[in-house]
Fold this protein.
Amino acid sequence: MAADDQPPKRSTGFGYYRPEAVAPTRVGSAGACAPPGAHVPAAAGAKGPGTTAEPAGPADPADGVLADDAVLDLSTDSARRDVDETLERLDRELVGLAGVKRRVREIAALLLVDRARSRFGLNSSRPTLHMSFTGGPGTGKTTVALRMAEMLHAMGYIRQPKVLSVTRDDLVGQFIGHTAPKTKAIIAKAAGGVLFIDEAYYLFRPENERDYGQEVIEILLQEMESERASLVVIFAGYPDRMDTFFSANPGLSSRVPHHIAFDDYDHGQLVEIAELMVAAENFRFDDGGREAFSRYLELRMARPRFSNARSVRNAIERCRLRQARRLVELHRPLTRTDLITLTAQDVYGSSVFGSDSTPDGPARAPAADISAADPRLAVPS
């Protein structure tokens, strides 16, 4: 393995309480700093309270093993603050998904404890961090992958907080001998970070014995085991298809210990997501617009190809288009309120309500769903 490909050394960065001991010295590298408040009590027989020691630097296990009677404070791990900030950001960015956030916190806790164990010389195998994200489109899988990369980097498990997102087309070659170098090039590009394979089940096509996707799976099996110290692979896709994918490839399934399910959002959560998206772009719904968008979601969720937060974002973009046309057609000077407000008229222009909709609401029931004749046409505006 080349020097640049070596797995990162995981600094453990704890301030700790150690009876009758001197706090660790600072790491000599420039910019290395320690969590404040590493507290060392007075030696046996000394009078008065304990003294506050020089802050401990991010100590590497190679710098020395703690005594059996030492006590580590997990809250003083130098990576803990970054991890907490990442988890808080995940809470802010994603509505709902309580089960997903709980699993992410469990993984964070596992790695923090693993770092603490290393300070006592309690050697164990490196936690396997390959994962499976299952859920419909627009449920936050990519966002969680990005935050997971940040968290793993903060704790020294990957070199870079990057995510390389790929699909079958990026991995499978077009002719004999093309797949292996293509796949290995992608793996090399993702090294030191996270490789996110979306719709991973398309790699497996049992109906075609000559399909090159199986070659990709075999290469991944090798690399996930041999390079697990420098690469995390996340497989993503629809739940039922992912179940079939893993069932047909038991060797792959055995290398993926973390399976995280992303549920579809309910109507109330989608309304909340819409409000957050609108505010992030310096817009707002007026009362009529908010009610109209809520009604839009009720209708759109019942139609084909609904993609959760992704569909919400697309709908808001189209509301902005209709708002812009409405404002231009006013032929008068515009106020700030004009520019930031999305109204019922901007929402009811959607084809979801039917072609005869009015600013006050749909004048008739939504038009018949043409997807019955051709599902490819069922993309409401």
Remarks:
- DSSP finds 13 helices and 13 strands in the chain.
